[in-house]
Write a structure and sequence with these properties.
The protein has 16 helices and 22 strands. With 453 residues, it is an alpha+beta fold. It has 3 domains: 100 residues, Rossmann fold (3-Layer(aba) Sandwich), CATH 3.40.50; 70 residues, 2-Layer Sandwich (Dna Ligase, domain 1); 240 residues, D-amino Acid Aminotransferase, Chain A, domain 1, CATH 3.30.470. Helix 4 runs antiparallel to helix 5, helix 5 packs across helix 6 and helix 13 runs antiparallel to helix 14. It is globular, with a radius of gyration of 21 Å.
């Protein structure tokens, strides 16, 4: 097992990894940007090193500074969390060259699956259905127009290194394609240091279904069921649940087998998520693979009674998958709400600033993953998520009622949050019936149901 792990991330995921390391008896080193000096992950790690100013391209994306911190801190492993460098194959290679273990898949698997365009080709070879799209990276707007006209509008422009909804733009005509092409590329370049994009057919109003994969270095690969991530705003997930309300046992078996076979095909190791689009008739298409732990891994943990981050660390150290991973079965229905520092009364504009009062809900069946606290200042440089609320129940209905209660207890003052919006969704009759899709939130807002001051 590792002696000391550097966490190359920030916020709640950094805190999540620190907690897992503590339970495994592993020392931790946090890296942080100047605005994050007072963040909880900095305060709770055994050691902390500043790696630069606020913008991520001057701190959390600086490979040389992270590696230097690991060497100064005498770390034998690095956990990248999600986002930032978590799906950067070059970073994994640099870690290996410095004799530091990258807690994630091998760089070959990241290149095969982490790059979304290459992943499509790999999935196609492995026999998974994929949506029509470009055969490779689209270099310019002229080529983009040719491809879009060939496969037919609407299409989705996607960054190959994207994640969290960034680097994605839908296009319904030539004009929106050109604008979206440049916007998606610029956004991806800023967020991930890679502005390459590809194009695929946009399947309108599907369910966004993802399967949680866990694999070790000994050829063992399992899946822990699906998560429904269809509740999205601007291509960013805001509510997730497991199990999906539209999933059947037969489709789960088929999709799960496909996902395990694909992970084995690329020699995958560690935690990963294979994402698909699925229509109401049960047809599904491979979309991408996230070669890292997901934001929403928590609901799988709560539903199945496992610890995915500790399992990540164990398999990275060479251990076989724990026996309970092979035999894990869901015991609860779990729902997660991502709490963002945004103003739902003002087109969801980011709301950075100081939190004057913070009170988190509790009670049976409620879990809070957050780095926020009274007096904490939400910086303007990063993703606006400040917390995750996870509620479980023996039935989906019980989980929804528990989430309603938890959101009602959550008090965050000083910054605006998405809590009122998510409360509205928890009471929406169609959501309660499981009758929703990826266009559900946009439809709500277009129908004039957005909040008014």
């Amino acid at each position: 097992m590792f002696n000391k792990v550097l966490i190359a991330n920030r916020g709640e995921i950094a805190l999540r990894v620190i907690r897992a390391c503590k339970e495994l008896g592993i020392k931790t080193l946090a890296v942080y940007s100047e605005p994050d000096v007072d963040s909880l992950h900095v305060q709770l790690a055994d050691e902390a090193i500043c790696i630069g100013p606020g913008p991520s391209n001057q701190s959390y994306l600086k490979i040389d500074r992270i590696i230097s911190a690991a060497e100064v801190g005498d770390c034998d492993a690095i956990h990248p969390g999600y986002g930032f460098l978590s799906e950067n194959a070059h970073f994994a290679d640099v870690c290996a060259s410095c004799n530091i273990k990258f807690i994630g898949p091998p760089s070959s698997a990241i290149r095969s699956m982490g790059d979304k365009n290459t992943a499509r080709a790999t999935a196609k070879r492995a026999g998974m259905p994929v949506t029509p799209g470009s055969e490779g990276i689209v270099e310019n707007e002229k080529d983009a127009l040719i491809i879009a006209r060939k496969i037919g509008y609407p299409v989705m422009i996607k960054a190959t290194a994207g994640g969290g909804g960034r680097g994605m733009r839908p296009a319904h005509n030539d004009g929106s394609l050109v604008a979206g092409f440049h916007a998606a590329s610029a956004e991806a370049e800023k967020a991930f240091g890679n502005g390459s994009v590809y194009i695929e057919k946009l399947i309108e109003n599907p369910h966004h279904i993802e399967f949680q994969i866990m694999a070790d270095m000994h050829g063992n690969v399992v899946h822990l069921g699906e998560r429904d991530c269809s509740m999205q705003r601007r291509n960013q997930k805001i509510i997730e649940e497991t199990a999906s309300p539209i999933m059947t046992a037969e489709i789960r078996q088929r999709m799960g087998d496909d996902c395990v076979r694909l992970a084995k095909e690329v020699g995958y190791v560690g935690a990963g998520t294979i994402e698909c689009l699925m229509n109401d008739t049960g047809d599904y298409y491979f979309m991408e693979m996230n070669t890292r732990i997901q934001v929403e891994h928590c609901i799988t943990e709560e539903a199945y009674g496992v610890d995915l981050v500790k399992e990540q660390i164990k398999v990275a150290s060479g251990e076989k998958l724990s026996h309970w991973m092979h035999n894990a079965t869901p015991k609860y229905h779990a729902i997660e709400c991502r709490i963002n520092a945004e103003d739902p009364f003002n087109n969801f504009q980011p709301s950075p600033g100081k939190i004057d009062l913070y009170y988190a809900p509790g009670g049976r069946g409620v879990r809070i993953d957050s780095h926020a606290y009274t007096g904490y200042t939400v910086p303007p440089y990063y993703d606006s998520m400040i917390a995750k609320v996870i509620a479980i129940g023996t039935t989906r209905e019980n989980a929804i009622f528990r989430m309603r209660r938890a959101l009602g207890e959550y008090i965050i003052r000083g910054v605006k949050t998405t809590i009122p919006f998510q409360q509205r969704i928890m009471h929406d009759p169609d959501f309660v019936r499981g009758k929703y899709h990826t266009g559900f939130v946009a439809k709500m807002l277009d129908a004039g149901q957005e909040f008014k001051k």
